[in-house]
């Protein structure tokens, strides 16, 4: 199911571009740390990695088995299943291509808010057209075996930016950073969502103010969130809560922030309990 769609005329060219992108693996574009507030006594002495701001909570692209992983000779992952298996948008965004494509038979490309593009190939039916806005988990196509393909599967490629010639990044860490591990179950997901802080607050290694500060959240910034749990009761800013929300950290691992500092309901809009 190898796909040689476009972009490379020589092994040397491929290696050069791969090397260019290797440092990005595991830390795709869009993970820039939020700007620090101009002044804050409570944050002055803490140099902590930021949570994974500005990425989005991904949805499972399709049910099936991974029949081919990303490699030097395969720019994407193949998810194999029966013809007609639904294919879903990995994240919300704008459809920038939908139609016939060399090698792919048909393809769909979606530009996401963090500047990454997800690319879907080989489907026999497409639901969306160029210019359309789609939401994460929205059905966009049905799986097929069109184009250069040896059996029904989805070829999922991820590129940084809208170029159709630059080599893609590994979709596995890209999806994992956004809460989806392959193979995945559509709609099942990880329960991951997004929270928005309304005040600056510390992110700690466990759900207690006695735990180490591992990061911070900033007013008005949104962050991916995994789940909520009950922890130490905190009183601050006129509110009391024992709910803490687990956030994935850019540096790996997770941290916890008191739900007091998050917009929304008692758990900051996070429905899944840890
Ligand atoms: Zn493929």
TrEMBL record:
<feature type="signal peptide">
    <location>
        <begin position="1"/>
        <end position="32"/>
    </location>
</feature>
<dbReference type="InterPro" id="IPR011055">
    <property type="entry name" value="Dup_hybrid_motif"/>
</dbReference>
<dbReference type="InterPro" id="IPR016047">
    <property type="entry name" value="M23ase_b-sheet_dom"/>
</dbReference>
<dbReference type="Pfam" id="PF01551">
    <property type="entry name" value="Peptidase_M23"/>
</dbReference>
<feature type="domain" description="M23ase beta-sheet core">
    <location>
        <begin position="73"/>
        <end position="162"/>
    </location>
</feature>
<keyword id="KW-0732">Signal</keyword>
<protein>
    <recommendedName>
        <fullName>M23ase beta-sheet core domain-containing protein</fullName>
    </recommendedName>
</protein>
<dbReference type="InterPro" id="IPR050570">
    <property type="entry name" value="Cell_wall_metabolism_enzyme"/>
</dbReference>
